[in-house]
Design brief:
By secondary structure, this protein is α/β, with parallel strands linked by helices. The chain has 14 helices and 16 strands. The two termini are 35 Å apart. The model has no long low-confidence stretch (mean pLDDT 94). The structure holds iron/sulfur cluster (2 copies).
């Protein structure tokens, strides 16, 4: 019988067993990094450290100390690291303490200052014929995908796959990825009497709004596909097709592959920072309290395994009900992120495994 393949995911827990420096997360993170052959992976290489810098009033992005420790480890291994994110995001970096002085490496816009430096790659999936990968990421020799794990309105979960697929492509390509969601929600203005039962029965604030002309607007990011609006509409004016969620997540997996294909084997490390696990993406420009207690930092050379393990660990933690904004209600779902956003967060991981990016089976190795 063939043995089932699995990948190793290292785990530095945020829990502190004793009041000693070495028992704390930053020191464990250093040990975790030392468990990888960083010299073989990164010596003499230009190493892109892809982060998401967040914006405005957000304060739950990755603490600069962890990035500084990572930069130091890459330099010690002989690598030449630079920190990168979209060009628009670079303007927000300083406000979060992300400067060369603090981090120890330059910050370089992924697609150049004008956000136009990119390379086209074919995808050929439904309407997503191609994507434009950020030029400075393609030009790098190696990459560390350093992601803050949290919930996400469009994909249920945002960490490494999201950081790669949406964070390493030009703005137009992000729009094309979002368009894969297609016409999931259709509203027939001729049938609609503007009774607003749909909005009143919607559990997600602002997923359905009406403008000054009394026309209905639907916001895919906030929609949980619960179909309450469709079911409560007395005129049959709303139709919902949830297949678009699958197309979007499949598109993200294929774009992730396109990014990773630009690197030689064993030149990419994935690190998920599972701290301040908020319901929404850092791009919102504000932060809400963590949904579960801090978990720690997971790392792997397999993007599928690190995402699967991160989601599984969220599942084992107690949900802090008071952290969810009062206007939001939980609905059905096997995972907390699905109960919040109505999108199965494992779907992107499943798609990534199906196209050969790694294994959902993993073994967790704790770093103490
Ligand atoms: S499907 Fe549910 S969440 Fe989406 S708009 Fe309709 S009622 Fe709101
Ligand atoms: S419930 Fe139906 S008829 Fe009433 S406002 Fe909504 S779409 Fe229009």
């Amino acid at each position: 019988m063939p043995t089932k393949k699995f990948s190793i995911v290292t785990f530095a827990s945020s829990k502190v067993k004793e009041l000693r420096r070495h028992a704390t997360l930053p020191v464990k993170f250093e040990k975790q990094l030392a468990s990888y052959p960083l010299d073989k992976m990164f010596a003499d290489k230009q190493v892109a450290i892809k982060i998401h810098v967040g914006s405005d009033m957000g304060f739950t992005t990755i603490h600069p100390l962890f990035i500084r420790l990572l930069v130091a480890a890459v330099k010690k291994a002989g690598g030449k690291p630079f920190i990168t994110d979209g060009s628009g995001a670079m303007h927000n970096a300083k406000a979060r303490g992300y400067t060369e002085d603090v981090l120890g490496a330059p910050l370089i816009a992924a697609a150049g200052v004008a956000n136009t430096y990119s390379y086209a790659r074919k995808i050929n999936y439904r309407s997503l014929k191609s994507v434009d990968l950020c030029g400075n990421i393609v030009d790098a020799d190696a990459m560390i995908v350093l992601s803050h794990g949290k919930g996400h309105g469009n994909s249920g979960f945002g960490a490494a796959i999201k950081n790669l697929a949406m964070g390493c492509v030009a703005r137009d390509s992000r729009s094309k990825l979002h368009r894969l969601q297609g016409q999931q929600f259709t509203w027939d203005p001729d049938k609609c009497t503007r009774c607003r039962a749909c909005a009143e029965n919607c559990p997600s604030p602002d997923a359905i709004t009406f403008d000054d002309k009394n026309d209905l607007h639907w916001f895919d990011h906030h929609c949980r596909y619960c179909r309450h609006c469709e079911e409560s509409c007395p005129k049959g004016a709303i139709k919902i097709d949830s297949k678009g969620t699958y197309y979007f997540q499949r598109g993200m997996a294929l774009t992730t592959k396109a990014v990773l294909d630009t690197f030689e084997p064993n030149r990419v490390l994935f690190i998920n920072v599972m701290l301040s696990i908020t319901p929404f993406c850092d791009c919102w420009g504000f932060s809400t309290p963590a949904l579960v207690p801090d978990i720690g930092i997971l790392a792997a050379t397999d993007v599928v395994a690190v995402e699967q393990a991160s989601l599984d660990l969220v599942k084992t933690e107690d949900f802090i009900r008071s952290s969810l904004p009062e206007s939001m209600k939980l609905s059905e779902g096997a995972h907390l992120f699905e109960q919040i956003h109505g999108k199965d967060p494992y779907l992107q991981v499943q798609c990534a495994e199906e196209i050969g990016l790694g294994h959902r089976a993993y073994r967790l190795e704790s770093v103490e």
